[in-house]
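sry for the spam today, last one i promise. struct tokens for design, 118 residues
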């Protein structure tokens, strides 16, 4: 059974930092691209950052220069370091695993809440 478990969310003041983690089990982690998505009520789910199994990264424009995605294949874990957080970064952040050869094979975590507020 595949599981993706996120952690690291919470309440932070504007300008602060958080580091999200997503640990996967039940899959061959190194065969999957990993992504972080976020969603707020009434808005479409947004891809925040993605890292391929080869380590290539991609970011949505609003987080470039502030967020960094990384992965540790030995720990089956993907990270999202979020710096200089803004109130508009407030959302539920979800982890996604997508097989590198077949995008229909993908899995989701349940999400972790990030709230940026003073």
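last one done:
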């Amino acid at each position: 059974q595949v599981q993706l478990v996120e952690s690291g969310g919470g309440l932070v003041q504007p300008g602060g930092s958080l580091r999200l983690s997503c640990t996967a089990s039940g899959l061959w982690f190194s065969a999957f691209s990993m992504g972080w998505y976020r969603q707020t009520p009434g808005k479409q789910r947004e891809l925040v950052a993605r890292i391929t199994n080869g380590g290539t990264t991609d970011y949505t424009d609003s987080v470039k220069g502030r967020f960094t995605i990384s992965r540790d294949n030995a720990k089956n874990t993907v990270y999202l370091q979020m710096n200089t957080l803004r109130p508009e970064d407030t959302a539920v952040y979800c982890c996604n695993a997508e097989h590198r050869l077949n995008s229909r094979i993908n899995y989701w975590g349940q999400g972790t809440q990030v709230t940026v507020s003073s």
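The chain has a mean pLDDT of 97. ok im logging off now
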